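Why run this: before we spend reagent on co-expression, it is cheaper to look at a predicted model of the complex and decide which construct boundaries make sense. The entries below are exactly what would go into the expression plan.
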Amino acid sequence: MDLTYSEADEQFRAEFRAWLDANLPAEWRQRGFWSRQDRDEGFAMRREWEASKARAGFAGIQWPKEYGGRGGTPAQRAIYDEEMVRYRAPLTVNGLGLTFLAPTLMVIGSDEQKRDIIKPLLHNEVIWCQGFSEPNAGSDLAALQCRAEPDGDEYVINGQKIWTSQAMHSDKMFGLFRTSTEDKKHRGITMLIVDLRSPGIDIRPLKQMTGATDFGEVFFTDVRVPKSNVIGVEGGGWDVAMLLLSFERGASAMPQYTGFRRELDDIVGLARDLGRDQNPLLRQRIASSVVELECLKYHSLHVLTQVEQGKELGAASSMTKLQWSETHQDIGELFADVAGLGHQVSGDGVDDLQRSYLWSRSETIWGGSSQVQRNIVAERLLGLPR
Amino acid sequence: MFFSLTDEQRALRSTVRELLADRFPLSAVRALYDDDGSDGDPAELWKAIGEQGWLAVLIPEDHDGLGLGLLDAAVLARCWGEGCVPGPFLPTLVAAEAIRLGGSAEQKSSWLPRVAAGEAKLTLAHGGRVTQADGKLSGTVHHVEYAHVADALVVAADGGRLWLVDPRGAGVTVTVTKALDRSTVLTTVVLEGAAGQELPGAVLPDVLDRGAVLYANDLAGVARVALDRTVDYDKTREQFGRPVGSFQAIKHALADLHVAVTMAEHAGWYAAHALDAGLPDAALAVSVAKSKAGDAAREATAAMIQYHGGIGYTWEHDAHLFFKRAKRAEYQYGDPAEHRERIARLVVDGA
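The model came back. Tokens follow.
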């Protein structure tokens, strides 16, 4: 057991902090700052700030240098994540591209795709969204129906995608489309790149229960896409999707730990302000959340160790997801119980906690619902029969 | 950054598991349940522990020990839980920590080498009301593990001071009580002007933390085996023409338990390391580990009964061995609610 970081890793931390100190405006770090910004302007500000961070070399921490990355270690990636949360730096505007598309292309992309997509993505020249879910294909993703009919050198797409995060601000989509209805359900699916400026695309925002419109619906009517936009091979989209989703698994949950722990501190502060911090039942609940969060930290250190040793995490990432998403929901309920009816009322600094409280309801659905995760843990880790 | 067991620690774990399974399997634990005349301290087991040098793990090298850390001891404690292993092994480790941390040079050299060699059994008597006057101790301590076979008691008196007491000395009465869990023996120690030898160091809080960490790791072992055995059973037990483990009502509960038990395992490691390395969050880590392990073991062993169905409720099935041990250790060195209150003092009150 050795929980210290190497000298090189600590050096990286010092450099990154120095950059953040110099380049992250103080007011951006205040609670509620981003909720006061106009949605589109706020996005543009974050997009440009993130690009400047990339130009300074603080992006693609673990990516090879040939793709514009830093060529750093898994520990440096964890340090980066931790510091971003600690500084309340704005979250990435290109998360789906960074987490999923770029690592996938590094493995199976064509030379042109690697060259044309990865670096511009890192510098936010192109913002990406992911087109997977459809109205009738949620947890059962392979039931997707959005059709891409082969037609000469092109496909013609008709159908709909839904719950598309960042749809309104994205330039391009990587998505799964049905290119053949002859095959079995998991075959006949192809991953395609779609330029969202193409004729025949209609993007409509979806308002969430927080009141924000972070995702939307994308409708396709005779949208033409060149066949060179296939990622992998035609009909091989399911395998590409599985590869793509596996890149989420290498991630430790240190950012969630750091963020949720800070949220819990805010709730403790609220309990003090309301004179409820000596209520024995609330104290037990606060402590329970601390227990689960600290366990998440220890677990993340273990995950990080395994990643550094080059081990495949596979289905174990479902445990990580269950632990952080379910714990975050408990923290949301704790906030409501501490605030009482006050949790309904906006203003006076509870806005961030309110948003987080509502948002936590989505976290056990997106990225594989808790029910799907429990099936994965039970079947792949415990070996229980289907 | 390395959060895992070393190769040496894994090798130690394999050795301990194999030897315990070979020399002291659950059938031997069961024999204690069925033998009302037993003293609950199998001689052949204690002999094997001494031969293997497992009691030497925390004893410094200059007292003939191995001078290893609490994490190494935690590896052993987890094996103890996995096999519901009886005997005064953990009580001796904890009480010896009191002497190592708080004893005089003479107390250390008279006890620690004997502990390391497996020649002395110790136990910690704490949580009672014991007063002291002129070096004489009076009071009653309940639920003391294995005082009836101990060579020395480490008694916590009012004011938090620790005293070495001869359990066979004048003014000391040890009464064995029958516990639900027969993988331990709980006794009542009555002191009536008993002679005591004070430990110079005020180390009770440290000792209790170390006890909490060792029992948390024991509990993690109990929980893991209870879960594994339940999963194995539900893979093959059929009802309605299919394995019951294919039903999501069971599958999802077992998946949640796997997450909880994994967290308890990692918390047990972290807390032991935090004390070894003197990390600033060590106190928090101890309470996280003990409360998480207590809850996870209670839930996993209860699930072991439930998801075995009727057979799980019988005397002949092993489920109650795990269930009773989990419930017993849940209350040793602080129960989950007590540890959560301590966490609240640390986090809410900033204590």
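The radius of gyration of chain A is 22 Å. The mean pLDDT of chain A is 94. Bring this page to Monday's planning discussion.
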